[in-house]
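2024-03-11 09:14:02 INFO worker-7 job=invfold-0412 stage=load source=structure_tokens
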């Protein structure tokens, strides 16, 4: 765990926790057809997943003080996850432990108008094109108020729909930093009416799971530790994502 700088502001991360059953298969299964599992892609298995705990873990391990707002079950896997988060230095006092199994795929939304009402801090939004989790009124509020919005190119239609009937570029504040990723392609950023691109160095990962979470954590770390310009923040995100993808099993 990196040393803490007392001048670095504390970050609160809110979102889902999940247990991911990541595995390699001989071929993708189809209707009325199974497939053979060739290997597991993580150790331990299932892999501790969900964007929020991963982002929090990356931030803590890089020296940024962080608290996590999420839910876990009180089963063995959930308690192991909670202890692992604590051992990484993540603040877990706001983690709700509920009776039963930890989620394998889905949990009720943890980002809400009430959470935003209670926050006086700058907001960063890692976009998910899911209108159930981010209904239009909540998405519009996040577009208007978030200081940092990170999305991938495939989510642009979702953002346009959320902004409607207003044009997206008129709803978002020019003071916001907007970052759009495109897989291994160039990353686009926009801030204060300036748009630019940052090239992504090539890498050949086996499994890209978690790369977006690591990227966002790297961007956040750069911003809260004093990165003054968007390209530097984007490069911090790229470095964090590449560091994750260079490790077997994409494990923190």
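2024-03-11 09:14:09 INFO worker-7 stage=emit residues=252
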């Amino acid at each position: 765990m990196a040393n803490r700088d007392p001048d670095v502001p504390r970050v609160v991360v809110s979102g889902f926790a999940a247990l991911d059953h990541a595995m390699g298969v001989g071929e993708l299964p189809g209707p009325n057809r199974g497939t053979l599992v060739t290997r597991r892609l993580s150790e331990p298995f299932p892999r501790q997943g969900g964007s929020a705990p991963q982002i929090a873990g990356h931030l803590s391990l890089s020296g940024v003080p962080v608290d996590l707002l999420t839910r876990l079950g009180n089963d063995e896997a959930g308690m192991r996850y909670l202890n692992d988060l604590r051992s990484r230095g993540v603040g877990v006092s706001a983690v709700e432990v509920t009776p039963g199994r930890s989620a394998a795929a889905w949990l009720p939304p943890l980002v809400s108008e009430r959470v935003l009402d209670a926050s006086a801090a700058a907001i960063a939004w890692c976009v998910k094109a899911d209108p159930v989790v981010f209904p239009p009124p909540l998405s519009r509020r996040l577009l208007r108020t978030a200081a940092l919005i990170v999305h991938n190119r495939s989510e642009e239609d979702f953002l346009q729909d959320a902004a409607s009937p207003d044009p997206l570029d008129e709803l978002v504040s020019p003071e916001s930093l907007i970052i759009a990723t495109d897989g291994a392609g160039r990353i686009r950023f926009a801030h204060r009416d300036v748009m630019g691109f940052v090239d992504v160095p090539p890498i050949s990962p086996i499994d890209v799971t978690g790369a977006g979470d690591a990227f966002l954590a790297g961007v956040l770390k750069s911003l809260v530790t004093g990165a003054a310009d968007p390209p530097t923040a984007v490069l911090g995100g790229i470095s964090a994502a590449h560091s994750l993808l260079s490790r077997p099993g994409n494990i923190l």
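2024-03-11 09:14:09 INFO worker-7 stage=report msg="The radius of gyration is 18 Å."
2024-03-11 09:14:10 INFO worker-7 job finished
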